[in-house]
Amino acid sequence: MKLIDGKKISNNLRLEVEDRVKKIKQKTGTLPGLATILVGQNHASQIYIKSKIKACQDTGIQSFHHSLSENSSKEDIISLINKLNKNSEVDGILLQLPLPNNEYTQNCINAINPLKDVDGLHPFNAGLLNLSKSWDEIIKKNILVSCTPLGVIYLLHKSNISIEGKTAIVIGRSNLVGKPLSILLLANNATVIMAHSKTKNLKKICKSADIIIAAIGVSKFLNKNFIKEGATVIDVGINRTPSGLCGDVDFDSVKNMNIAITPVPGGVGPMTITMLLENTLKAFKNKR
Ligand code: NAP
Q: Could you say which of 62, 78, 181, 237 would form a disulfide bridge with 33 (CB–CB 3.0 to 4.6 Å)?
């Protein structure tokens, strides 16, 4: 088994981000800025926000954090977003999900200026991604793509795992992970299969894939019976269990296989935050 070390790849990319931030400061006299919004007290969200703020501080990006109370209305959140939209020091706006009330999530996302939508969830950016024809186009046009899927593609590229012509299965079809990731894999010329909770014969389909992306949210769901020898497995899942964090893959079951795999923690998670920094720099550039 070969471990794909997301932490190491991510640390190297963060050094590059730090360097680019220094150059921006020298050239323009200003620093890129990221505003984060946390609504309520969700424990996992508090941890993620803390890591995001720290990553900004470590790389020199300005961080502006806003906490809103659990019972904030849709209007309260949108009013804050509107202020941040107008603030020229803020290049990116990240609304930490899930919101306490999921009913108005999309309305709040829609209120974010698409140029500041560093999570790539605004219909404008999701649309641009859908219309893109290739990875080159996505990069050249500086399209703001959802951070976790973008991080998965960087992990594959930086680990020299070729995607072109490979059969890739994405298990999970959320707007945040599964759907954008399938488009990114397609843009990298993979043959993409999308699976979900209604997929029949998942084990058999998975076993035919060269690249397996597990974005399900069910701990230890995939075991060795789903995976062929030689495959690459990207475990996006983060599941909190009484014995700690674990992914969607049963790591013990696959540890003797000849596969490349991301660990949980230390795989996709650090890349997600690094891509948020990357998107903030993209947003800074796009603004100009
Ligand atoms: P989500 O919105 O809950 O989507 C889960 C997807 O998994 C759905 O499309 C669902 O299918 C599918 N699914 C559920 N049970 C299944 C089953 N038995 N067989 C096949 N498919 C099944 O979750 P998400 O936001 O995409 O997140 C997925 C996981 O990634 C979670 O563990 C989350 O914590 C983690 N995550 C990690 C990062 C990171 O930085 N590492 C970032 C984001 C998310 P249906 O559509 O049919 O219901």
A: 62
